[in-house]
Amino acid sequence: MSHLPQVMLILALIVAASKAAGHLSTRFGQPAVFGEILAGLILGPSLLDILRWPIFAASPGAVGAHPDLAGIVQDLAGIGVILLMFVAGMETDLKEMRRVGKVAFWAALGGALLPLGSGAAAAHLYGYGWGEGFFMGAVLTATSVSISAQTLMELGSLRSKEGSTILGAAVIDDVMGIIVLSIVVALVGGGALAPGAGDAAGAGSGAGAGGLKILWICLAMTLFFVLAWMLGRRVLERLTEGVARLKVSEPVMAFVVVVAFLYAWAAEYLGGVAAITGSYMAGVLFARTSFKERIERGVHPLTYSFFVPVFLINIGLRADIKQLGGHLWLTLFILVVAVLGKVVGCGAAAFLSGFRYREALRVGVGMISRGEVGLIVAGYGLAHGIIRNDIFSVMVLMVLVTTMITPVWLRYVFPRVAEKPAPGVYESVAHLEREHPLENRD
Amino acid sequence: MSHLPQVMLILALIVAASKAAGHLSTRFGQPAVFGEILAGLILGPSLLDILRWPIFAASPGAVGAHPDLAGIVQDLAGIGVILLMFVAGMETDLKEMRRVGKVAFWAALGGALLPLGSGAAAAHLYGYGWGEGFFMGAVLTATSVSISAQTLMELGSLRSKEGSTILGAAVIDDVMGIIVLSIVVALVGGGALAPGAGDAAGAGSGAGAGGLKILWICLAMTLFFVLAWMLGRRVLERLTEGVARLKVSEPVMAFVVVVAFLYAWAAEYLGGVAAITGSYMAGVLFARTSFKERIERGVHPLTYSFFVPVFLINIGLRADIKQLGGHLWLTLFILVVAVLGKVVGCGAAAFLSGFRYREALRVGVGMISRGEVGLIVAGYGLAHGIIRNDIFSVMVLMVLVTTMITPVWLRYVFPRVAEKPAPGVYESVAHLEREHPLENRD
Predict the structure, then answer these.
(1) Chain B partners within 8 Å of A417 (Cβ)
(2) Is B199 on the interface with A (CB under 8 A)?
(3) Distance (Å, rounded) from C-alpha B294 to C-alpha A301?
(4) Chain A: residue nearest B29 by CA?
């Protein structure tokens, strides 16, 4: 028979484990996000390895191959992070973000240059060549903001001054990261690294072709952002109103799904930036329409009961801590560089741009978490012989540890529930706050 | 890079096409469901074959294999039909269903025996052996109620006397279908056909082992239904109340997802019936809790803006009309047998059980549509040499045509919006009704 039953079982287990772990995590005063990622680690190959349990095998005598459960879980996780960032976009306070725009820019720049330079220097100190070193530094540049965004939403601080700075800096960091990576790859290794737009410029790897390619990438990015923004500002309200009159079920929500997914696709395929940057923009733009609350009410329930849990658990499902033994010192070294590179790089830049010490620290901590982009770059380096397996393993561990540090650290540097949480989603956090209004505050 | 952007693009196109086609369909006085399935046929290999468009290929120079887009779409479609049947379960009027229970039983029996017998006779008349004939008849027995359920919800008639009979008969039909299939397979071909429970009873194919296996299947089914029902009746309300107090986002919705998916898995893996029967039961049971409206508000938006469109479009994406040429007369013959087998078999049984002519016709029409179960059985027969490729193609076309006939015919035999449509989902249909209150009624 088809593998639908197995898909149902694994998804039920994932959602149940995620919520149970999230609840336990809040009991221990930690953000739910932390517990959910930890639950994924426990379910994954590091410990229980549930995907290989016999119950998930194709049943004997059945028609069809062994189900590719890992693949479907990963695809759902991908949809999950797209929706998570769409919600973060809807939650964004655009006025506040404009106010902190300059700080966000400098924080992003500091948080890109310091990890790049110190990563390269650290690798060089450890005995690697400068080429390898700069590549490792480049892997350390790209912040993955989804975990911070989720944690800040949970803490009710996404719309704060620091929350807005973090989200703004993350978008700018995405752009800068791609440019930095393109430059490093053009200098260090051949071939096309950046997706879509970059490839279109030709596959030559000489310095001239490299420069042309970087120029092309910048142009594609600019075009994407300008077009996406203008389309959103000019016609989204009227389009949504038109769609709302269609004689089908849930027309507005369907339109939201279409636009968010198209923006995610266009961001990566046409603009060369991350897909989540696209859906984040779609969220920001829909939040400016008169349909904002209706959309929030529609998106939240299944996003937070299904897609986001799958995304969070999937992080751990794909990691195997057992394979990360050895290289203890290099790992610790790179970890310190990765964490301090963002905390100091973003923090100092924010501080110098006028933020107070505590505010600057919050921005720095919110930018620690690395994610998929770093892993993709590391995978590229591995495939093209720029780095070896040992460094790749170290990078995987770096992504995992920074992902798990971030929610816990954010929880300690941010005041809890500084503002009204969003309707519906955070009802239980608000409930927690009513019960213990002062404990656990810093 | 990962294939996430391509996944986003195909899903955006699917949702957009589905809603546009659904709207057009209602403009022509047809149920939206019909247009959405037709849109899938147009997008599929029969005409546009979008999944093979170059834009969905892995980008040149990218890390990673060509994305298995068809697989992810199909998995999402599977989740979609599970959620659709959960919603249908929540919409079900259990009191009304109890009242029509006896009629539903006889309708299911008539609708199983007539297609089985007439299918076998037709195949025999056409020159096939009785073994092959009974196997073809068995393929014709299993009703797939999801399309009817969706159409009835759209028409606002799911809770009517006939709607309740159709849903009840479909559940009984599912049970009967599995038993009929097991008997035919035990008699005609060796090997294990029924999943899970059947296999556990041993793989022997002799008449004795076959009888034992059929007994085992019936036992497993009974156990599943009794346990699932008792668990749901006794503890669901209190469990949901407990879960609602968890300090995580969307605890109730997460619990709903977990229970619906677990029931779907258990139905097929433990009980041997279809997964959608499991999620349908979960819906019926949650509808009895005090959380009913909250759950409906949470499930509807993304289910109807994302999952159900993917399910409906996917039907067409998997069909290739071009490969179904030839065998025109056999196809027409089988089609007539398939349609009349259900209309007459279920309809006459309902009529004889006390329904009026028009009511009985509605029940019969609602049971026409065949689906996945028929195709899986046909695929089994093909793999085991019981039927050949020509009959398999005819069966695929039969499933497709019955799926497309059903919404249109239901639309003509049912009065439109006989009752208040469900909150939220059918707002646009209700809106249509307010604008044209009398036209298009039969």
Answers:
(1) none
(2) yes
(3) 10
(4) A247
Lowest mean pLDDT segment, chosen from A246-255, B172-181, B209-218, B428-437? B428-437
Alpha-carbon span B254 to B235, nearest angstrom: 17
Contact between chains at A78 and B2 (C-beta distance less than 8 A): yes
Q: What kind and span of H or E run contains B393?
A: helix B389-413
Contacts of residue A228, Cβ cutoff 8 Å, sequence gap at least 6: A263, A266, A267, A271, A278, A281
- Strands annotated E in A323-415: none
Find the Cα–Cα–Cα–Cα dihedral A95, A96, A99, A103, rounded to 10°: -140
What is the number of residues in chain B?
A: 442
Task: Give B391 or A301, the one with higher predicted confidence.
Answer: A301
What one-letter code names the amino acid at A315?
I
Beta carbons of A368 and A140 less than 8 angstroms apart:
no
Alpha helices in A92-206 (DSSP H): 94-99, 101-125, 130-139, 146-155, 161-188, 197-200
Best residue of A2, A4, A74 to probe chain B, by most B CBs closer than 10 Å? A4
Sign of torsion, CA B155 B160 B164 B169? Answer: negative
Beta-bridge partner residues of B370: B143
Question: Stretch A57-75: mean pLDDT, rounded?
Answer: 68
**CB distance from B274 to chain A under 8 Å?**
no
Distances (CA, A) of B339 to B8, B137, B178, B370, B378: 38, 12, 20, 10, 18
Question: Could you say which DSSP state residue B130 is in?
Answer: H
Query: What does each C-alpha distance from B14 to A433, B175, B315, B317 come to in angstroms?
Result: 42, 33, 12, 10
End-to-end CA distance of chain A: 55
Q: Where are the alpha helices (DSSP H) in A292-327?
A: 292-302, 308-317
Confirm if B245 and A294 have CB atoms less than 8 A apart: no
* pTM passes above 0.90: no
- 3-class state of residue A370 by DSSP: strand
ipTM, two decimals: 0.86
Contact B32 A247 (CB under 8 A): yes
Distance from CA of A408 to the nearest CA of B (A): 16
